[in-house]
Amino acid sequence: MTANDTTAERTVIAKRVEEGEADTTEIRDLARAAGYDIVGAVTQTRTEDPAYHLGEGKVEELAALVREERATVVIFDNQLGPYQTFNVGNKLPEGVRVLDRFRLILEIFGQRAQTRKAQLQVELAQLRYELPRAEAKASLAKRDERPGFMGLGEYDESREQDIKARIARIRDELERIEQTDQQRREQRRESGFDLVAMAGYTNAGKSTLLRQLAADIGVDENEDRHPDLDTTAESEDRLFTTLGTTTRRADMDRRDVLLTDTVGFISDLPHWLVESFKSTLDSVYLADLVLLVVDVSEPIEEIREKLVTCHDTLYERNEAPIVTVLNKIDRVNEAEIQRKREALSALAPNPVAVSAKTGENVEALRERIHADLPDFERERLVLPMTDETMSVVSWIHDNAHVETVEYGDEVVIEFEGRPAVVEQSRAKAGELVEASA
Asked: What is the model's pLDDT at position 398?
C-alpha cells in the first residue's frame, strides 16, 4: 500500500494523553503518509490502563466507531505493549489490525527504504521493536503453562533467538557499509571538500533548501536516491519523502562544499529507533558544519520543543558547529520572525532566516556557511618547472582556492585550502623537488 493507493484502508485513530486535550494532527499526517484513509478518531485523557491502554469503556466506544465506519485498521498514537494490543484486538471486529505509533513509523520507513543500507536499518528497527514483544509472549506462555496461549508457546522462544541472531548479522553488515561510507567521507575531505549536513524535523523544508543551495545533481552514483535527484521533482509536503541521505555539491564561490540532506526527525522517537538509524545520522555527526532547519511558521513552543530534541540527539556525538536556519519566512511577517528570534535565542543564537521556497536570504546563508566552516590554511609553494609540476598545479586548482601563480624558471603558487589539502600539496611539492634534484 502506498500513499497514492486508491484502495487505502479505512482507519480510526486512537490517542490517550495524561492531561490536556489530545492533538491528533501529527498521527493523522503519519497515517496519511503511510497511505491510510482516516475516517474517525477516539481520544481520552486519563492515566494508562495496564490492560487496554485506554479505559475499557473507551475501547468499547472505539470498537463501535470501527463497526460504524467499516474500518479495518486502528492506529494508536501511543506505544502499546503486546498484552494491550492483544486485549484491544479482542474487543474489535474480527480482522481489524491494531498498530501503535512506532509500528506505523516503521511501516512508513519500510515504504521509503530503497537502498540496501536503508532497508537494513529499517529491518533492524523492526526487529528491535519486535524483540521485547517476542520475549513478553514467551514469558506469558510459560507463566500460563498453555502452549499456544495468545498464539504463543515454543515457537516464540525460537522466534526470540532468531531475532537476536538476525540483529547481530544486520549490525555486522551495517558496520561494513559504514566503514565504506567513512572512507568516502575521508576521501572527500582529502580532496578539499567541506562536509555540511542538514538536520531537522520532517516538513521543515530541508529538501527544498537543498535545491536552493545545490550547484548540481548528486556527486556519487552510490548515494541513496532522493526525489530531488530528479530535476523535475517537486518538494512534497508530506512526511518521510525520503529515507537515507542525499549528497550534492553546494553552490559556493570560494569553497568546495558537499551538502548532505538526511532523514527528518519526528517527535517522541524512542532511543532504540534512533539507534537503529545511527549510520544515517553519522552523516550529521561527522560533518564539519550542521544546518539545523526549523519551520519558523510553527508556534514558538513547538519550535522550542523540536530544537531541544534535535540538540539532545546532535550534541550526544556531534562536535561540529550548528547553525539554526529559520525556514519559511515567506509565511510570517517580520515582527513575528523577530519575536521568535528573541524567544528562541538561548537555543538558536544568531540564526539565519530564509525562505527555501522563494530563495529569499539564501545568499546570506551561503555566507554564514563559509564563515562557520573550519578556517582555511594559506600556503606559498615554489616548484621546479617540469612537466609533472603542471599536473600538481592543476591538482591544487581543483582542490584549493588559488590566489596567484607565477611562471618562470620556477613556478610560485599561492593558495588557501583545507589543512589536509595543504599537507598533501606540500608532500607533492617535496616529491617534485626530490625528482628534479
From this structure: 81
Confidence of residue 189 (pLDDT cuts 50, 70, 90): low
Right CATH for 10-109 from 3.40.50.11060, 3.40.390.10, 1.20.210.10, 3.40.50.2030: 3.40.50.11060
> Rounded to the nearest 5°, which phi and psi values hold at 62?
-60, -45
d(CA 24, CA 28): 6
Q: Given pLDDT bands bounded at 50, 70 and 90, which one contains residue 179?
A: confident
If we measure between CA atoms, which residue out of 314, 118, 324, 125 comes closest to residue 226?
Answer: 118
CB atoms near residue 254 (< 10 Å): 9
Q: What is the pLDDT of residues 84-134, one digit of tens each?
A: 998 999 999 999 999 999 889 888 877 777 678 778 878 888 888 888 777
Nearest alpha carbon to residue 282 among 308, 250, 319: 319
Candidate CATH numbers 2.130.10.10, 3.20.20.70, 3.40.50.300, 3.40.50.2300; the one for domain 192-372: 3.40.50.300
d(CA 411, CA 408): 6
Residue 6 pLDDT greater than 80, yes or no: no
Residues 383/413, Cβ–Cβ less than 8 Å: yes
How far is Cα 177 from Cα 75, in angstroms, rounded to an integer? 34
Q: Determine the average pLDDT of the residues in 175-194.
A: 74
**β-strand pairing of 322-327 with 289-295:** parallel
Enumerate residues 6+ apart whose C-beta is below 8 A from 436: 384, 386
Mean pLDDT in residue range 240-259: 72
Per-residue pLDDT at 232: 28
| CATH among 3.30.1370, 3.30.1340, 3.30.870, 1.10.10 for 377-436 | 3.30.1370
Measured between alpha carbons, how far is residue 357 from residues 129, 148, 207, 246, 329 in Å? 37, 56, 10, 19, 9
Taking alpha carbons only, the member of 288, 298, 303, 222 closest to residue 250 is 288
Confidence of residue 215 (pLDDT cuts 50, 70, 90): low
Judge contact between 341 and 311, C-beta under 8 A. no
H or E element, residue 143: helix 116-144
Q: How many CB atoms lie within 10 A of CB 398?
A: 12
